[in-house]
Amino acid sequence: MRRKRRLHKPGFKATVALTAIRGEMTMAEMVKKFDVQAPQITQWKKQLLATAEAAFEKGDVLADEHEQEILELRAKVGQLVLENDFLERGLARTQGPGGKKR
């Protein structure tokens, strides 16, 4: 009888792959401990090694996106300050400095 297909969480996959990379256990020990077949462990190990570089690149990309967002928000604040000053001057001309009608 076949075993029901299991879906493993990313954290579990990472733990298994890191254990395989470190070489703390033999493949047979990992198969027994984690209850996962050897080809699956090898696949997760290769996947981790192939995508490890991306873990360090995301920080740079996120920092650039964050800086861009800050620049856009500062530009928006500057625009709103200009509009606010313009409207205050118009209000002061028509209703006096306190904003009340004369």
Structural account:
- The protein has 102 residues and is an all-alpha fold.
- It has one domain.
- It is 77% helix and 0% strand.
- Helix 1 (10-22) packs across helix 3.
What's the short version?
With 102 residues, this protein is mostly helical. 77% of the residues lie in helices and 0% in strands.
Principal-axis shape: rod-shaped
Oligomer: single chain
Order of helices and strands: HHH
The number of distinct helices, counting runs of at least 4 residues, comes to 3
Low-confidence stretches: none
State the main characteristics.
mainly alpha; rod-shaped; 3 helices
Annotate the secondary structure layout.
Blueprint lengths: L9 H13 L4 H8 L3 H58 L7
